[in-house]
Amino acid sequence: MATSVALILASLLAAGALLAPSAAGRAAAMLGALVVAPVLLVAHVYETDAFASLREHPPAAVAAVVIATVVVAALAVLFDRRPAWFPPAVVAALPFRVPIGIGGTTANLLLGLYVVIAAGGLAYAVPRLRAARRQRAGAGALATVLAASAGGPSAEHPVRWLERLLALSVVLYAVQSTYSSDADHALENVVFFYVPFVILFALLGRVRWTPVLATRCLTVLAGLAVAFAAVGFVEYATKHVLLNPRVISSNQLESYFRVNSLFFDPNIYGRFLMIVMLALAGVVLWTRRRGAAISASAVLAVLWAGLVLTFSQSSFVALLVGLAVLGGMRWGVRRAALAASGLVAVAIAVALLAPGAIRLDVGDPRSADSATSGRYDLVMGGVDLFTSAPVLGQGSGAFAREYRRTQESSDEGAASASHTIPVTVAAEQGVAGLLAYLALLVAALVRLLRGAGASVPRAVVAAAFVALVAHTLMYAAFLEDPLTWTLLGVGVALARAAEADQDGVVADGPAAAV
């Protein structure tokens, strides 16, 4: 019970970082979330084997905490003095996951990104709390000026439906973990993903994007993507995958060889490449500089080769969806719709004329499972879980355990998710969670797509988000993926900037680029 209460408290603090009416309130909630989430995690894993070495050697644990604190504090000072460094730091840390043993399993954690988020949170929160304290102490007009310049109540952006629904989604997920058969998994999702990514969204939503900053971030993304693709080429040439034993085993059984570079899953690797490719495609479509177009096209060719070697069907489809959105913004919806219709017609023709090429037998429904790499059975199992508990669902994080129970499978690798996010949400959270998810999608799409055609960065972010949503319909991870929150945060910041052009309001966060 105490753990459930602490988990709900962490989610409420994260929600407060989005919804509190004043800068000081949001700052306090942000700091509270940054403190409660790690404490909750330590309490969760303290008695496990993963924590044994630190538990049995207190000096090592203290040293680890001191080192982490010093690193975060140093970065916070840097971001406070050089706020334009925060977005590139986020972008650079996004793809890197470190395998850590947690509760008897191995979790691939975004440790670098967590450090950047914590530092950004401190850089945002501490000045605002200090200014609020000075103002309460009645230090006079100077304190009022300092409070306003640091982001006082009047400087906070108004709360929109997107922020409300994000907060609702996080709190609802935590509440529904209280009756889950796998509450530990739900706790890990909240602590590792939901809470820190809410803070990431809040910070990125306050960035004042400039052409220089956008170019710098795209350069970092493209450089990382090329480096990852190079690793993938080496894996394919040597027929040796560096990470993830399951991918290694799969390659031994299939007639083709999939690469995952430094990622633990070819589909997550493909998702990252797909997002970067859409950003570069935006450059090619809109730039008037020949050199930039040639450079972006050359990188696109390399990344396309890297994407092909993933054999990630979901990433291919998502890329086409994103390109269709970009095409609609660049040349008009009618032309983009005609092109997309042609591609769909080709796909249908392949399925009817050469079903063996995609392992599909139109007359056999079970062949859909082979054609979708096992997703058909997972989706059907998820539908069964939903129908057995349609209102509130099985509980947050319970899909894998409940699927194995209903399928009478003891194999821990039998399922990790339905690989179709709406089905996962419906199975775990019932109608309540599904309605919140659908409302969140609508609010996000409206916020990002409205007026996006007037700005190249907004068009790219909107297309990338739509493509990511398409990817989640065929693969796992939506709010558990930092890319989702990054695209939403950047998109909100750009939308706010477009609105602020009319009245001269400027961005106010620690990551505001100046």
Notes on the structure:
By secondary structure, the protein is mainly alpha-helical. It has a domain at 1-204. 70% of the residues lie in helices and 2% in strands. The protein has 21 helices and two strands. It has helices spanning 2-19, 23-45, 52-56, 58-81, 86-93, 111-136, 141-150, 161-176, 183-204, 211-238, 245-253, 266-286, 290-308, 313-331, 333-353, 367-371, 375-388, 399-406, 421-449, 456-472, 482-500; strands spanning 98-102, 105-109. The protein has a two-stranded antiparallel ribbon with strand order 1-2. A hairpin with a 2-residue loop joins β1 and β2. α1 packs parallel to α9 and α4 crosses α6 (111-136). The longest helix has 29 residues, at 421-449. It is globular and about 60 Å long. The chain starts with a helix and ends in a 14-residue tail after the last helix. The model is unreliable at 140-154, 367-371 and 505-514 (pLDDT under 50).
What can be said about this structure in brief?
With 514 residues, the chain is mainly alpha-helical. Helices cover 70% and strands 2% of the residues.
